[in-house]
Amino acid sequence: MNAHIGDLPFEAVDLRAALLELTDPLEVIARDILGCGGHIGWIVRDPTGRVGLVQRALPGRDLEAWAELVAQLAWLAPRLADWHQLAPERRLDPSLSPRALLVADSFEERTRLAAASSGCRVELWRLALAPSGASLIPEGQRALQAAPPADMFLVDNPPKRSHFRSRLRDEDL
Description:
Layout: E1 4-5, E2 8-9, H1 15-20, E3 27-34, E4 39-45, E5 51-56, H2 62-76, H3 80-86, E6 99-104, H4 109-118, E7 122-130, E8 133-138, H5 140-145
Parallel strand pairs: 5-6, 6-7
Antiparallel strand pairs: 1-2, 3-4, 4-5, 7-8
């Protein structure tokens, strides 16, 4: 499938420059790294030393890419101390939880809901083209508006009173 953003092939967009233009610029420290059963697009570092993963999602494949990025983030976290020891000059801070950015030209509603309700540090960013180059726009605001309540999935937050009725009594249990 030949995906395009505007008139450019998706792969031709200079994402590295867009990462450096963020409010907290992300420095690319490695590219195309073998992770957990697949490749990670970019390993980045923010000014505080927090490590991040950046992956592009092809149109219509953003939910699949999000799930892959969640797995890669879980794979990366226990390796940060080793990476810091192997390359101290990179100034990676293994005490900070890693983050991940999924970049796409658009996101399906399912992906926004999954990202908003999962609790994972996977951020959704839209890639936009302008005459001056590519830029990244956070998708998070839209995802958070559609998110279910944070306690919706907690097991230890049962409903106050069940509406289910049966003829069972407490002594029958």
